[in-house]
Amino acid sequence: MKTDEAVAPVIAAMLVLAVIVTFFAVWNATAIPSMKAQAEVSHLHDVEDGMLRFSSDIESAASTPSSMTRSERIPLGGGDILYSSTKSGGVLAIHNGSLTMVMDIYNTSGSGNYQKLDNSKFRLANFSYQPSGNFWQDQGYVWSHGYVNVTKGTLATPLEFSTMNAVDYNLTDALFSASSVSNASNPAECTVLVLKGVNIQTANARGSVSGNGAGTLKLVSTTGTEKFYNVTRVNITISNSEQLSRFQDAMRKSVNSSFNKNIFSPVCGNVVYSDTYSTNNTISLTIASIPNVTVIRQTTEIVLSAQ
User: Fold this and answer.
1) How many CA atoms lie within 13 A of 223 on its CB side?
2) pTM score
3) 175-199 pLDDT, tens digit each
4) Are 122 and 149 in contact (CB under 8 A)?
5) Can you tell me the distance from the alpha carbon of 45 to that of 39, in angstroms, rounded to the nearest whole number?
6) What's the rounded Cα separation, in Å, for the pair 73 and 76?
């Protein structure tokens, strides 16, 4: 009897210990993964918000005639909770973009042929966030051509639009603009054309940052102006190495709209407009040699970096 009384507390303690072990096993198998997944969802929402804010920063820099600097903090890792501080990681990267537009400016040489005064190429870089060891799912984000895609592996879908066909490519309105100044002695003619192009490129110093802390997307924009005299022709060629036809069409509409609204509405009778986009992706202005026309080329250089 005394032996049974001595063994009973041991058995009771073992049963209690078994219950505790079972409880923690179930806790670790179900509750903690669920909480880490929920924390990861919150982390990805923060990434999403940062990507959208930086997209707005780029559009503001492209639209603003003055220089500016903007930055956005992006959390690279997440999923840490009170009971498990292990975090996932991520990679924030800036990528060299495709060519969007070429602006060629000419005058007429003594032999009557066109000679090129300037050749400006405008590119559109892009940036992305890709997760590593995510506790929920490997959901990433890519900003390209003015909008944000949600990615998973090789799949991608627009974040703010229902389908790719609904993407509006509003950034194209900021990538190019045109205006004119009328001839004081003859308002039906123009003596000055102002053409603006935006070039978005990567910084040479750093292209990506990785880890589970925080990264920063940064842009620095600078503006410049150059004058070309006695101009008799301007070619705007819209090109995209990724063959995004809908982006090309949107860019073409923006260029045409700016020309029609700001140059031909004031009636520039000495400028002839030609749209050969369907054959060579080019929109041209042919300008009479009298009166002499000056082209002011304005550029906005936007440099992106991840640090």
Assistant:
1) 15
2) 0.86
3) 999 999 988 888 889 999 999 999 9
4) no
5) 10
6) 9
